[in-house]
Amino acid sequence: MSRHSTAKLLLALVAACTLAQRPIEATPGSTALESASTTGTIRIIGAERTRPDGDFWARSDAEVHGRLSLLRVELVCEDADPRRARRAFADALGLNFVDHFPKPEADAQAPSSISLALRDVSATEALEALIEASSGSRRAAWQVRSGILEVGPRETLARRTRPITRVIEVTDLLFEPPSFVPPDHYRRGFGLGETDEKTLRRTPRQIGADLLGSIVAQVEPDAWHPVSEAEIADGVVDPVDPRDPYQGRNLDPGRLDPETETPVPIYVQGRWASARLKDRVIVVRAPAFVLMGIEGLPKAVAPPAILLEPR
Question: Comparing C-alpha atoms, which of 175, 244, 171, 249 is closest to residue 217?
Fold first, then answer.
């Protein structure tokens, strides 16, 4: 994506003990906003593009996506409080926000302060840096759900937020061009124009099984793992039916039920997410951050110009 700014601006929002804002003088062609702080600043320094209308606060997933992907920021924090820094970041971008990170007293490994220095990066890059610096001993993530930005440890997002069911159309992905294999005598150099070539083509079921296997292996692999014995000991409920002879997963397109001799469904039931191939669709039930890895966010809506105006 080319980096050009349709609106030059300086907008500072600071992760500090207070978030009170005071406007500063804007120069021609720029807009500025600043909050006093003793620890650092979060500045919006440019935008790929904007739109003339729209509210300050994002209302949809597409609007959140636009602000994260199209705004460029400068993030400088020196011994800043992580929770205040995350809140300040969301406020600067006009994002409704839910913070699922535990308080420091609940996680001995969680940092009590963070120090970052990032300049001219996308808002997404700044958000991920904030999350990484805040994670402590627990891998964290961010997700967008119902127009709200949520951050926190992956297992917390998976178990505290409501999963989403999505039916993903994959018809076009289940067909591949045939591969023609010439007869043996042609391969030995004695082809006489015969047409008894063999045609190799995988079935939609075979392709669908490979597709689902790729999702499980590459998109948040932890979400698809079985529930561990340690988790069960901690009270986590195993979503797999104990009567399931396949223990919650089958990715073998050739497997047949020994009793009915019918194909076994292609499916995976993981500890946080599940997916099943049904005809020409994949039905996924998963936390929002897992679905983001599969299908992304809705097409970005450019941030409104009001974001760039002094307040």
Answer: 249
